[in-house]
Structures are given as C-alpha cells and as structure tokens.
Specification:
Helices cover 20% and strands 27% of the residues. It has helices at residues 8-11, 33-40, 62-66, 82-90, 100-112, 175-181; strands spanning 20-23, 47-50, 70-75, 94-97, 116-119, 133-136, 139-145, 149-160, 165-166, 182-193, 212-215. α4 links the parallel β3 and β4 (94-97). The longest helix is centred in the middle third of the chain and has 13 residues, at 100-112. It holds the Pfam family CoA_trans.
C-alpha cells in the first residue's frame, strides 16, 4: 500500500462536505496547519470538526470558521477565537463542549474499539444532561460515548514511509489518540524518512493507523500567546 502523498492538497482528496474530521493539536501546538490551509482552499463545507480547540481568528481551524466551512465543533476549549464566539452566540455554529479529559478518552476509546465508558467528569453540570448515570465506589459517573471520524488529520515531527510517527514534546498532545480513531488517517510530518530509520522504541503511532503521509512544505508554528518580561 502506497501511503506517500506529494502535498497536503493530494492528501486531503476524498474529504467531502458533511464529513466528520478529527484534527490534532492543542492551542496552536502540533496542529496540522498545512492540511487545514489546504481545506480552506476548497469549497468543502458542512463539516463536523473534533479538536481540542478552534485555533485563532486567522490561523488553524479559525481559517475554516472564517470561510463558514464548519457546521459543528466538538471541542473542550474555545476561548481564543472571537469569530468562533460570534458564530456560537448567534446560532450559526453548533457547539458541543466536552471536559478536556473526557474528550481525550472519547477519542482514545474510539480508536481502541471501546463504544462507551463511565466517568465522573461533568456530573451535575449540563454535560450530564440526557446521559445515563451509575454509581461506582459511592460516586456518580456519567456514560460517555466514543468518538470516531471519517478522517483524522494529525501532525508529527518525524514519520517514515510506512506511516510510523514520532511527535516532539508537547506537540504530541491529542495527535496519537486521534490518529487511532479515524477511518482514514492523514499525517503531515516535518521530516519524512525511509523505513528503518526510526527507532521502533520511540515510535508513538504505529504505521498501521496511518493511511496517508506527506512532508509539509512549511510550518509557521505560531505562538498563541507570547508572554515576556520587560528588560531591566
């Protein structure tokens, strides 16, 4: 099976309007920025996007929000995007806010073939509305269902031509669990190497989970919030 694609535009071929996408990253750290930019250049719309957050106004998933390509966001944090806030409050965008740990576990469960699990997170809040509640060790837990997607799009530091991936530092975040949960997983990498060049002891995502891989043309790696001290 040839997993190598020349660029982001070729790798996203087959994504259609109305599909559900998972996109790795946390804030702007470890996001598949080449793939998102390629999606923004298409007329694909009515997407359901599962991501920790929705980028910022002019970068990351913020690009797809600006062009009205997203119908629904499933996320845990949305505080850095003014356009997201405007669309949510106006009713233009459907939003499902999930506790961050629950979001990660719902993605992991989807990749592991576990249909649902019980968690105490969210009990007593709007998150629990309409969900089954059971008591374990004297503590109420709510039933959360697994999440999967038509396509999962992740970003890695290094990958080989078999699809094995290594993430770097905190850019690992949601990428490994989402890579497992897509029917088709696209990986964009900073460096694409030959099979055998990656130490298998350091591979985070085995190639069995990855169907498409390409080397990104460039990575801006924008800093979401720059905090510095004044020089004395």
């Amino acid at each position: 099976m040839n997993k190598i694609y020349a660029n982001a535009r070729e790798a996203i071929a087959g994504i259609e309007s109305g599909m559900t996408l998972m996109l790795g990253g946390f804030g702007l750290c470890g996001i598949p920025e080449n793939s998102i930019a390629a999606l923004a250049d298409t007329d694909i719309n009515n997407l359901t996007c599962i991501s920790n957050n929705a980028g910022v106004d002019d970068f990351g998933l913020g690009l797809l929000l600006q062009s009205r390509q997203i119908r629904k966001m499933i996320a845990s944090y949305v505080g850095e995007n003014a356009e997201f806030e405007r669309q949510m409050l106006s009713g233009e965008l459907e939003v499902d806010l999930i506790p961050q740990g629950s979001l990660a576990e719902r993605c992991r469960a989807g990749g592991a073939g576990i249909p649902a699990f019980f968690t105490p997170a969210g009990f007593g809040t709007e998150v629990a509305e309409g969900k089954e509640v059971r008591e374990f060790n004297g503590k109420p837990h709510i039933l959360e269902s697994a999440l999967t997607a038509d396509f999962a799009i992740v970003k890695a530091w290094k990958g080989d031509k078999h699809g094995n991936l290594i993430y770097k530092g905190t850019a690992r975040n949601f990428n490994p669990v989402m890579a497992m949960a897509g029917k088709i997983t696209i990986a964009e990498v900073e460096e694409l190497v030959e099979p055998g060049e990656l130490d298998p002891n350091f591979v985070h995502t085995p190639g069995v989970f990855v169907q498409r891989i390409f080397q990104g043309a460039k990575f801006e790696k924008r800093i979401e919030q720059r905090t510095v001290r004044e020089r004395t």
